[in-house]
Design goal:
This protein folds into 3 domains: about 180 residues, Thiamin diphosphate (ThDP)-binding fold, Pyr/PP domains (Rossmann fold); about 150 residues, TPP-binding domain (Rossmann fold); about 190 residues, Rossmann fold (3-Layer(aba) Sandwich). About 40% of the residues lie in helices and about 15% in strands.
């Protein structure tokens, strides 16, 4: 037996046919028919998360980890709005979520009835596609419409660029009615993935530009690991006129890349700033973390800026865009890498000389500083086991990670679509559901407290490990020039607080470790990683020293 709501049975049958297997469900009344349909079908796997805001980030993390769409299910009313932060993140990160919201029947909306809001197209500004299914299946036309709407939604979620879609499902009482399982005989049209291409003339034009310009910068931002892309880029960085700059979450593994953008840019002076700026800039990936490179490229604009993206709108980050190519970076660079000719430039060498100088100074400086966030990250990052999936929260963790050479892990990621601190722990929980490897989250104490509901999720797997940088508040505001000198800093921005990491760990049955010195951290890290249980480590550093040490790092 399954739900007697035919529109729900159609919905789930199409999801099954289109390869959706994973659900994240929040309990409710109006979504009872959907819960029944999912729970009684062995094809589906579901995680139950009470807090809808947390649930949506769990789905985001799971989808990003497994590379497949994940379905979200909630009841009507404000539950729907709690999905919004994660949906916005998924939209700007191109993560395919299928958001299924149960709704009240249309005649009771705006009639002072309980758990009713206007749910039609509620995520209008950050959703790829939205539809509302018929409230009842009364005739064949209703059935056909439901099939068309649902299949269109799944197709949009999986059409590059990927992203979230919304299916709103109005349901009348009774909600727990049952019906025998039966074949619906739904036949869906065959779907062939869209093949993005670039013409031979455009290939020749790009090869000519790469061969002619003496200062070519390839700038890689947020992306998934891609071996084909790595192979192509490895050929291009051998050219004297080409430099490749990558970020921690670019997930590019190329030996000739500059992997520490901000650290290298500390070596710029008024005399060489214009010299290091590119003539031809080629960007690819999601949003950039580094403000320093954005500042440089906006002040010294390239003659040409080519952006590689499957995004449906133009992305002109530096107000210098001359060409946007609608293709994947791996496909494009694989087509041209072998054909670009070297010229007599010294651009690559100049950047690598700067990077080496910065690396030498960094080693000396980090060795000289006392206990701090900087010292802690210098120990944590190289210690990460190579078979780990790393999650970095926003605020200081992602920025500190940018200052250190590439460390060995399977993938580094962060919620950098919208860059909020909300949902980092929930996202890591979702990622842990999607792999048997260790998932390590490095987060700040404010972000950890903000998303502490994630710790209460049932059945969090033992492969999740969390490092909390406990520095007494929002440390990033001590470093940002706009807030650092304000008298309101501590109360209104930093929000100085003693987050009870130990108590939260014990409440939710996590193994707990606490490091308050360099020696303690060195001793505890191997034990922490080796824990057979889910575990949390707090790393306690001095609140009022971290910004001074970081600021002096850049000065030095």
């Amino acid at each position: 037996m399954t739900t007697d709501k035919k529109q729900v049975r159609i919905l789930l049958d199409i999801l099954k046919k289109r390869g959706v297997e994973n659900f994240v469900i929040s309990p409710g009344s109006r979504n009872t028919p959907i819960i029944i349909g999912v729970a009684r079908d062995n094809h589906f796997t579901s995680q139950i998360v009470i807090d809808e805001r947390s649930a949506a980030f769990v789905a985001l993390g799971l989808s990003a980890q497994i590379g497949k769409p994940v379905a979200l299910v909630c009841t009507s009313g404000t539950a729907v709005l709690n999905y919004a932060p994660a949906i916005a993140e998924a939209y700007y990160r191109n993560v395919p979520l299928v958001v299924i919201t149960a709704d009240r029947e249309p005649e009771v909306i705006d009639q002072n009835d309980s758990q009713t809001i206007r749910q039609n197209n509620v995520y209008a500004n950050y959703i790829k596609y939205s539809c509302t299914l018929p409230t009842e299946i009364k005739e064949r036309a209703d059935e056909i419409k439901t099939i068309q709407l649902v299949d269109k939604a799944i197709s949009e979620a999986l059409t590059p660029d990927f992203g979230p879609v919304h299916i709103n499902v109005p349901l009348r009482e009774p909600l727990a009615g049952l019906s025998p399982v039966e074949s619906l005989n739904i036949e869906l049209p065959k779907q062939t993935p869209t093949q993005k291409a670039i013409s031979s003339d455009e290939q020749k034009e790009l090869i000519e530009k790469l061969s002619r310009y003496k200062k070519v910068m390839l700038l890689a931002s947020f992306a998934e690991p891609n071996e084909e892309l790595d192979r192509a880029l490895a050929k291009l960085v051998e050219l004297p006129q080409v430099v490749l700059l990558t970020e921690t979450i670019s997930n590019i593994n190329v030996s000739g890349a500059i992997t520490t953008i901000d650290r290298t840019l500390t070596q710029l002076t008024d005399d060489n700033r214009a010299e290091v700026a590119p003539e031809l800039l080629i960007t690819f990936g999601g949003s950039l973390v580094s403000k320093m490179i954005k500042t440089l490229l906006r002040a010294y604009k390239p003659k040409e800026h080519i952006h590689i993206s499957e995004c449906s709108w133009k992305i002109d980050t530096f107000s210098a865009l001359t060409w946007q190519i609608d293709i994947t970076a791996s496909s494009l660079f694989s087509l041209v890498a072998d054909k670009v000719m070297p010229n007599d430039s010294a651009y690559n060498k100049m950047w690598h000389d700067l990077a080496q100088t910065a690396a030498d100074k960094k080693r000396e400086y980090v060795a000289s500083v006392g206990w701090s966030d900087m010292k802690a990250f210098s120990l944590i990052l190289p210690s990460i086991p190579s078979d780990t999936y790393l999650q970095l929260s926003n605020g200081t963790p992602i920025r500190y990670a940018q200052l250190f050479d590439n460390y060995s892990c399977l993938k580094s990621t962060s919620n950098r679509g919208v860059s909020g601190i909300d949902g980092s722990t929930s996202t890591a929980v979702g990622a842990a559901y999607g792999t048997e490897n260790m998932v390590l989250l490095i987060t700040g104490d404010m972000g950890f407290q903000y998303d502490s509901n994630a710790l209460s999720i049932a059945d969090i797997p033992s492969n999740l490990k969390i490092i909390v940088m406990k520095n007494g508040g929002g440390g990033i505001f001590r470093f940002l020039p706009g807030t650092a000198a304000l008298p309101e800093l501590e109360r209104y921005f930093e929000c100085v607080t003693d987050v009870k990491v130990k108590q939260l760990a014990e409440t939710y049955s996590f193994d707990f470790y606490s490091a308050t010195t360099e020696e303690e951290l060195k001793t505890l890290l191997p034990k922490f990683y080796a824990s057979p249980n889910r575990a949390i480590m707090e790393v306690v550093t001095p609140r009022t020293q971290n910004d001074i040490i970081l600021r002096n790092y850049f000065k030095s």
